[in-house]
Amino acid sequence: TMTIDNGDQVVEVHVHNGLSSSDTIFDYSHGYVATRLLSRKACFILKIEKDVIPELQEIGRLAFEKKTLKRIYSPKNVWVQYQAGNSWFGNFRNWFRYGKPIERLCSGLPLYQ
């Protein structure tokens, strides 16, 4: 499921798929994406790169295309592969940088950037 909040510039994506379930937040106002993998009990954070991550308005269009056409043909599909590295727990300075939506998603979990 996907929720788009144009006012706060936040997109929430929830994937319900058993052990592969995840929650993702695109926080355009702070410029970060965070994915919480439920099976790993960890959060992965990356900076939004405008040439790779679709703009907020385009995410809604892509979701509409996927829902109605069941197939998206777009050069802006986002596929991310994470490599395990050093983790840390967020502190006040990190949460200020990443914003409240990402803090709510990832608080108390190891963070990987």
UniProtKB/TrEMBL annotation:
InterPro entries referenced in this protein's UniProt entry, alphabetically: BRICHOS_dom, Gastrokine
GO annotation, cellular component aspect: extracellular region
One Pfam family named in its UniProt record: BRICHOS
Subcellular localization(s) per the UniProt record: Secreted
BRICHOS domain sequence ranges: 16-113
Entry keywords, A to Z: Disulfide bond, Secreted, Signal
Main location: secreted
Name this protein carries in UniProt: Gastrokine-2
Source taxonomy: Eukaryota, Metazoa, Chordata, Craniata, Vertebrata
